[in-house]
Fold these 4 entries.
Entry 1:
Amino acid sequence: MITRRGFLHAGLFGAGAAAGGLRAPLLRHGTAARTLPLVPPRALDATLALSLSSYQEEVRTLFHAGSELPEPIRNLYGLNCIQGILLETEGQVVLAGRHDPALPEMELDDLLVALRNAFKVSAEYQEPIGCTIDPIPGARDPWEIQSVKVLGMPFGAPMGDRHVEIDYELKRVGAGLKNLGPTVTSLYEMTRAESIPCQGGETPVAQHSSTHRFWFTPLYPNRKPRFLQDGGAIWIEEPIHVQVQSEEEFLDNGKRVGGAPPQPAAVKFAESINKLLAGNEVRPYAHLRNDFRLVEVAAVMQFKQASAASLEYLLRDCPLRRLDTPSKVGGIRRQENGEAVCDGRVAVVRHGGSVRETLNRSVDRYRSEYRGGVEAAVSISGSDFNIAPNKAVAGFRQRVWASRASGDLSHWQIRSWV
C-alpha cells in the first residue's frame, strides 16, 4: 500500500527516469502562415494554442498599468484541456488543447502555482503540491479544532484554498453530513450498518468506531507511452487521473502512532468517490482533476528543460492572488448512542394467592461514531516518460505554427486539416 508520506517523499520522476529529454533541432518559424502539408497525420484534435511567452507579456502590461485582468486573460483564453506542449529551441513555450465546456476554467493563478512548484523557484514551492487538515496533538480535544496546512505553494493561493475546501467537504461526506448523490453512501452509515447489535457475546457494551484517513493522489494510466514526442513537440496521449486512497489510522491524543490497511467500509467509500472523480458530475472534483493535469503539464515542461528564462515573469514576478484560507477549522464529528432490546422473557411467580411477573431482557448498548480523521493531499510523484517519435506529432507542431496569423499573437485557433 502506498501511503501519503510515500507520495510526498517520492522523487518527481522516480529513479529510472532520464534526466534530460529529446531536444532535436527544430525548424524556425516566422510570423507568416506556412502552407499546411497535403497529407494530414493521425487525428490530434487540439483547437486552441497559447504562447506562454507572449501571454506573460500581455499579463505584465496589464499589471504594470494597474488594470484588472479581463476574464478571458485570467482564464487562459478558454484553454482548459491541455493536450500538447511545444518547446522551441529559442525558448518559446506553447500550450495546445481545447476548451471543454464540461470542465471548469484553468486560471492564471493556478498556472503560476504549477509552474513555480515544478521549477522550485523559492522555499514556498519546494514540497509537492497538497494540503492537509489534521488534529492538533496535545490539545484537550484534538478533534475539536484542527490545523490547516497548505503544501508546495503560498498559504492563501487559490489552488490551495480550493484543495482545503475539497478536503473539508470530504470529511462531511464521510460523516454523512453532505450528500453527493445515490452512488455514495457515507462511511459513517456503512460502518453503522456493518455493526449490528444483538449478535451474541459476553460483552454487555459493544462500541464501534471508525477513524480513517483519505487523501487524493495521482492515478497513472496503464497505457504506455503516455506522451508522444517528436523533437520539442509533445502530445499527451493519456493525461493523469485522480484517486482517493485510504488507511486506518491509530492516534494517541491526536498524535499518529500507527496505521493499517483500510476496513472494508472505507474501501467501499473510497471506491464510490473514485467513480465520481472520473466524471464531471461533482464540479469541485472536475476542478481537482484539472489541477492535477495542470501540475502534470508544468512537470513535463521542467523535465524536458523548458527555458525558465523565457518564463521569467510567470515564474517569479507575476502577482499571485491570495484568498482568506483558514488556518484552523472545526473538526467534523458525528456520534450516536443507542440501546437495543434483543429479546425478553416474562417469568411468572405464584406465591399463595398472588401472581408476580418479571421481565428479563437482553440489552445491547452500542456507540457508533465518526471522527474527522480524513486527509486530502494533492501531490505529483513518479511517472515514467516513454518517448515515441511520431510523424503525426511533428505534423501537429507544423499545424500549430501554420495557424498563427502573426508572430506576436498570444493565442490563436488551430486550423483543421483540409
Entry 2:
Amino acid sequence: MNEKPLEGVRVLDITRIIYGPWAATLLAQLGAEVIHVEMPGSGDTLIRLVSPGGVFPRNLSPGMMCCNANKYFVAIDMRKEEGRELIRELASKCDVLMENFKPGTFDRWGIGYRQLSEINPGLIYVSMQGFGNWGELWERPSYDAYAQGITGLAEITGFEEAMPVKSQAWIGDFLSGTIAAFTTLVALFWRNRSGKGQFIDMSQAEVLIRAMDWTWLYMAIKNQNRKRYGNRDPAVVPSCLVKCEDGYAAVAAFRKDEFEGLCRAMDRNDLLEFLDYDARMKNAEKIYKAIEEWASKRKVDEVVRAGYTYGFAVAELMNSAKLHASKHFNERGAVWKYYDPLYEELCYPFALHLGKTPGSIRWSMRPVGFDNEHVFRRILGISEDELEELYRKGVVGKWDASVPTTAPPEGKEGRVIY
C-alpha cells in the first residue's frame, strides 16, 4: 500500500456547508485523520438537506457528499460545557482545527485560538470566514452566490447586454476551501521548522478577488471596470466557445502557428494579416465573427477534427454524463469510482495524483455521529460507561431517523466498518 503524505496528521473539522468541509476533505484525501463534528440529531442541516430536485438516493445528500470524504463523523453539542470540554480534549490531541462559525463564537465558548493554543501551542487554527475575522465586513455571513456577487466575479461573467451571471458551480466555496487547505499545509511545514502553531485568518471574498486574473491591474492602470464579454476572451484572441450545428465547441489559437492553422482550416487566409498579437487584439471582432460563422455550419466532430488536423486547440463542450464515461478521465482516476461500505457504488471527481504518495478516496460522507464510539474511545480513552452517560445527557448523540440524510441507509444502522 502506498504511503500517505499526511499520515499522522490529525485534523478537528468543525466546519459547515461547503467551504470548510472541502478544505478538510483535501487533507483527508492525502491521508490526514479528519474528525468531522456536527450537532447531534440534525447534523449540518444547511448542507445535509441540499440536493437538486430534493432527491436523496440511499439517504445520501449530494450537497454533503461532494465536499466530504475519508472523515470520521462525531456529534457533539457544543452549546453544553461538557461538549466544549470534549472539543478541548480533542484539540489537545490534534495538529489542526478548522472552523467557520461566526467570528468570535468559539472565543465566547472558550474554544477559540487564544484558549486552545494554551492547551496545545503547536495547534494550527484555521478560521474560515466570508470576510475574515476583522475589518468593516467581518460580521457578514457568506454563501457562494453572495461571495460571487460582492467580489465582482458575477459582474464580469455573462454577456454585456444581459444581467451578470452566477457560476452554477460553487466556485467560491471550492476555490476558497482549496486555498485554506494550501495555507494549512504551509503552516504545517513552518511548524516542522519552528515547533509553533499559528492562527490562519481565511477570507472567502479575498480568495475570489485574487482569482480574477488581470481585472484589478486593468482597473489600477486604466481606471476602467472590466466588461462582460460573453464567450469570447478579450485578452487571448482567439479563445472562445462557439455554437455548431449539433452542439458546442471550445476553440483557442493563441500561438502564431495555432492561429495560422485555424485560418487555414476555415479557408480564411485573409485573416493571416492578423498573425501578430497586436493585430489580433485590434481586429478581435472580425476574427471572432469569422470563427463563429465557420463553426455554425459544421458539426462538432468536424470542428474537433479540424483542430487535430491543423494544429489548434479545440474540444467538444462536455457534460457530466460524457465525463463520467470518458476513457481518459476514468483511466487517470479523475473519475473515481469506488465502493463505500455504507452507500455502496459511488463516484467522485479526483485530482490529487502524487507519484510516490498518491491521495485516495476510501469512503464518502457518513451519518451524524456514526463514528462516536470509534473516536471517543480510541482517541480520548472514554470508557463505555462514560460514553453512555454523555449520550444520556445529550452531550453527544447520533442521527435523527426521521431525517433520512442524517441516518444510514436502511439495514445498515449497526454496520461495523473499521
Entry 3:
Amino acid sequence: MITKYKFKNFYYNSFNHISKNKFYKLFFDKKVNSNINNYFKKTYNSYAEFFFLSARSSLFFFLKNYKNDKSKRVLVTSFTCDSVLVSIINSGYEPILVDIEKENFSMDINDILKIDKKLYSIILIQHTFGIPAKYLIEIKKFCNNNNKILIEDCALSFFSKLNNQRLGSYGDVAMFSFELSKSITTQKGGCLIINNKHLNIDTMYSKYNEIKYQPKIKEFRKNIQIILSIYLYNSKFYNIWYYLLKILYNLFIFEKSTPKIEKNCSINNDNFLLKMNIFHKKLLSLQILYEKEIINEIHDNYTYIKKKLISNKLNLKLNYLNNTNYIIRLPLIIDDKKTFLKKLLPIINFEVGYWFTNLALDERFIKFQKNKINNKNCINSQLISEKIINIPLNLSKQYRYYYDPLIRMLNDD
C-alpha cells in the first residue's frame, strides 16, 4: 500500500532489475526457463512447490487443503497486510491476533505463551520488511514441541537469511510474494513451498492439478501489462507515463494487485485461485540469475544511508536492521508521521509506504473473530502502525542520490 499523502513521485519496484539489455534473455537465454521448482528445492530443501497469481492465494490453497486440523484457527500478527486475513477467513479459518515486539516488528513469543494451546494448530510468523523474526527459533521449537504447524510469511524476504539459512526454510510451510514492491516480481504472483514431508503433499498436488490458469485473453493482457511496466516504471519520462498508467488502471486495462471485493473481506471464487503461467515463471527465472547483483545493490543502498545519517539518528532508527543480510524495504519510526510526510514527499523521487495497520482494531475482520482474546492487547502494533513508514532499498545506483533529501530530513528531525 502506498501512503495516502501521495504526490506524483517516481515509483521504484523490482522491475528495475530487468533493464533493456537483460529483457531479451527471456526469449533467448537457455538458463531462463519455466522450471524454477529446482531452485526452490535446492535453496529451501522443500518437498513441494506450488505457483499462483498471488501470495494470498498460496496461503488460501494450503489452508483449504490441510486436512489434519480440527481447531480451524491460526495465530497471526495483528501488524500485517489485510490480504493475509482475507485468505485465512475465506479458507474457513479464524484468525487469532498476536501483538508484535518493537525491535523487528514480528510476533512475540511471550504473547503466544499466554494463549491456550488448544485453541489453534497453526502459527503464521511474518518476517516484516525482510527482517528475520526475532523469536523465529523459539517459535519453531515451540511448534515442534506442541505439534503445531509453522508457516513463514516471506512476502518481503525472498533473499533474506538468518544464521546463513534462508528464511522460508525454517517452517513447515512458507509463502512468497512476487508483487511489484517485492524482491523479485511478476507484477502479481506468489509461491507456496512445503518443507514438511509428513503433510498431505500428494493430496495437495492432486488439488493443484485441478486449478486453472487465467483465461488466455486475460493472460495476454497480463503479459502485456508486465512488458509495458518494465519500461514505463523505469522510464526517464515517468512523469508523463504516470498519467497513462493511471488511465490504464482506471479503465481496467491494467489490473490492480488487490481487487475491491477483497477490501470487504470477500473473494471472487472464479479468479482468486489461479496458477502462475509460463511467462511469469520465466520472468522469475531471469531475476534469480541476478540474485547477487540484487543483494549487492540493497547492501550498497543501505550502506549509503547508514553512512550519511548522524550517529544518534542511526541508533534511533536503524539499529534493528543489524541481524539481516538483505531487506527490500527500510522501516523508519517517525514520531509525527503526518507532518514528516507532508514535508518529505514533495522533495523526493520515490513513493513511501506506510505498511502496516493494526488489524486488531479493524472492524472488517473483528466480526469474523470468535476469539478476540488478544485484540485489546495488541498495543505495540497500534503504536508502531501510527509511526512507521518504509522506503524502497532497490534504487539503481545512478539514482542513489534520491535518498539525500530523506537523509537530510532525518538528520534535522
Entry 4:
Amino acid sequence: MQQERQGAMRDDTSGQDHDSGGSTLRASPASEADTPTSQVVRFSGDKALKLDSGPVLDPWQIAYETYGTLNADRSNAVLVCHALTGDQYVASQNPLTGKPGWWSMLVGPGRPVDTNHYFVICANVLGGCLGTTGPASTNPATGQRWGLDLPLVTIRDMVNAQAVLLDHLGIETLFAVVGGSMGGMQVLQWAASYPQRVFTALPIASAARHSSQNIAFHEVGRQAVMADPNWCGGRYFERGVRPSKGLAVARMAAHITYLSDPALHRKFGRNLQDREEITFGFEADFQIESYLRHQGMTFVDRFDPNSYLYVTRAMDYFDLAADYGGSLARAFLHSPTRFCVMSFTSDWLFPTAESKAVVRALNAAAANVSFVEVESDRGHDAFLLDEPEMFRTVLGFLTGAAHARGIPAPLEASAEAGA
C-alpha cells in the first residue's frame, strides 16, 4: 500500500449546484484520472479489491477529500457519498471547473453537516474519473488507459472500496453516512454490508433498486455515447479523439430527468432564446433548448465518457433485496443503525414511493427509522439545491444522533463556547 497526499484539507463553504453554468477548465481531466489534485491512496497485495463480477483489482487507488478534524476517540466521522456525476469535492473547489463544492450548502462550517464539529470524508467512486480507479485510469499491466478492459463495478464494489479507505484512515465506525441519488444507494449498501460500522444513515432521494424506467433512461444515454464515431469502441484516448457529441446528448437526456415540469415551466416556459420569432429551422429557438445544449457541452469537459457508461451500469445493477433472497427487510435485519429517509414531492426519477418501500422494509426489520417527504417543485435535483426543510431535517436528525452517540452537537457546542 502506498499513500500520496496531493491536496491540503479544505473548508470552503460558498457554493452552488455543481452542474450550473460553465467555467474554464483549471486542470487536465486526463491527469486528474491518475494523479488527482485531491488526496489519493493506492492499495495492492493484501488490500487488493475483489469485485462482484469476479476479477481482482491489484493495484487500485481511491481519491478523496477530508474536511474538519477527527476527534480523539474517532467517533465524529461522516462519510458523504456522491451521486452519478459527482466527485470528492463535496465542499471544496473542483480543480477542473473551478466551481465551489457541489454540496457546500449542506456540508461545511456552520452547515447542517458542520465541519467545525464533524470530520467529513468524501471519496470519488470506483469507476469514476477524478482519481479513483476507473476506465480513464492507467492499467498498470499495459501502460494504457483501462477503457473497457476494466471489469464492470457495482454499488457494493464502491462501498467496499470506501471501507478499505476508512480502514486506512483508522476509522472503525462512522457517525453518519449521507448521500443523495446514487449516493443514497451507497448509503443503503453501507447499512446492509457494514451495519456495525454505521451509527446513522441518511439516504436522500434514492431507492433500494433501480427501476425499469431509470434503466431505460440510462440505456439511451449509453447508446448515445457508443453511437458517436469518436467513441472507437472505448479506445478514444489511443486515437486522440473524444465522443463529446454523444456524451453531451446523454447528459441532455439525463438532465431532463433531474428536473420537474413545474420547474422547467417556471424557469423557461416557451420563451425564445435571443430572438423575437421562431426561425423555422433547427437552431435553439427556445430557451430550454439552449439550456440543455449548454448543460451537455459543459459536462463533457469534466467527465469521462467511458466512466459514464460504468457508473450508470452500476446504478442499473443495484437491487439490494436481490442479495437477500428478494426480501429488502432481510438486508436490515437486526440493524443497529438509525435511519432518516428523505424524498421530494416532485421527484419522478426517485419518487417518494421508492423511499417508502425502504421505510416499510426498515420497519419490518424493526430498525430505527424516520421519514420525511420534502415539499418541493424542483424535481430530483432538489437534494442539491437550497431546500430549507431538507437542511432542518438533516440538522435535527444529526443533533439527535449526536446525543445518542455521546458527542457534542453543533448547536450545543456553540452554546457552550459562548457560555
